[in-house]
């Protein structure tokens, strides 16, 4: 039986894998927007504060006028409105509510003052309703009362009703009907630049253009030495896009002597 001579050495070099170079991300920053949230304080917002201050002055003046008119009517008229002193005690409540509103405008961070202002606004609103009813009743039974007194009392009650209702709406909308710990969004614009910004601590790697379908030819074998000294150069060429590969061992067996 004849001996089969096998090649002494069959070397194959594994082709290097084709890898795309890793490129560090380069960020182009045009504007950075820092979003932050601020807890809303228990006070009237700045854009409403000026209007609220005007309403406070009007309510204070209304209360003073109501007290003065109630005292004058008590002297010159013996009507039902003047006898119970409706203009006087309602005017006193209007004056207190207006004074608290002005005080809150001067010291907006005082929470106790704010609660007192809100409470007296509600009380003044409630008392303006019977004040209006008494004033209208004095006009109906005009033969018992001094008619100008009933007309002026009606106007004072309507004005007090409107001002106190406005304060209740403002305080409820912006303070008391807001969820506890509510936040107001704000934005701070910083670092405006049009130059690319490389992340800190990372080396800059320039971008490279890589062909979509590269063709690389790599010699994958070395010459095969046989016992008789015969050498066969390896000419196998690998295409990365090919899925088949010629076996060097199978090619070498074709040169064995028969």
From TrEMBL:
Pfam hit, one: CD20
Localization: Membrane
Major localisation: membrane
Keyword Disulfide bond: no
InterPro entries: CD20-like, MS4A
Transmembrane portions of the chain: 52-76, 88-105, 117-144, 150-171
Keyword set, alphabetical order: Membrane, Transmembrane, Transmembrane helix
Top-level taxon in the UniProt lineage: Eukaryota
Membrane-topology descriptor: Multi-pass membrane protein
Family as reported in the entry's similarity comment: Belongs to the MS4A family.
Protein name per UniProt: Uncharacterized protein
Lineage: Eukaryota, Metazoa, Placozoa, Uniplacotomia, Trichoplacea
């Amino acid at each position: 039986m004849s001996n089969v001579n096998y090649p002494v050495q069959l070397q194959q070099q594994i082709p290097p894998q084709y890898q795309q170079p890793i490129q560090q991300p380069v960020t182009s920053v045009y504007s950075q927007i820092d979003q932050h949230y601020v807890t809303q304080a228990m006070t009237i917002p700045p854009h409403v504060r000026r209007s609220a201050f005007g309403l406070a002055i009007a309510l204070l003046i209304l209360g003073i006028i109501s007290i003065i008119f109630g005292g004058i009517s008590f002297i010159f008229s013996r009507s039902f409105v003047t006898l119970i002193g409706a203009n006087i005690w309602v005017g006193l409540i209007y004056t207190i509510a207006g004074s608290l509103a002005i005080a809150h405008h001067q010291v907006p961070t005082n929470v106790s003052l704010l609660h007192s202002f809100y409470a007296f606004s509600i009380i003044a609103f409630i008392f303006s309703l019977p004040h209006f009813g008494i004033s209208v009743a004095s006009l109906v039974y005009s033969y018992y009362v001094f008619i100008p007194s009933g007309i002026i009392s009606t106007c004072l009650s309507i004005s007090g009703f409107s001002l106190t209702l406005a304060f209740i709406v403002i305080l409820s909308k912006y303070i008391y009907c807001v969820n506890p710990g509510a936040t107001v969004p704000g934005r701070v614009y910083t670092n405006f630049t049009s130059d690319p910004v490389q992340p800190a601590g990372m080396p800059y790697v320039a971008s490279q253009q890589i062909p979509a379908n590269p063709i690389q030819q790599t010699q994958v074998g070395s010459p095969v030495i046989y016992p008789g000294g015969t050498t066969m150069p390896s000419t196998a060429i690998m295409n990365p896009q090919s899925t088949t590969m010629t076996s060097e061992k199978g090619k070498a067996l074709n040169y064995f002597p028969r």
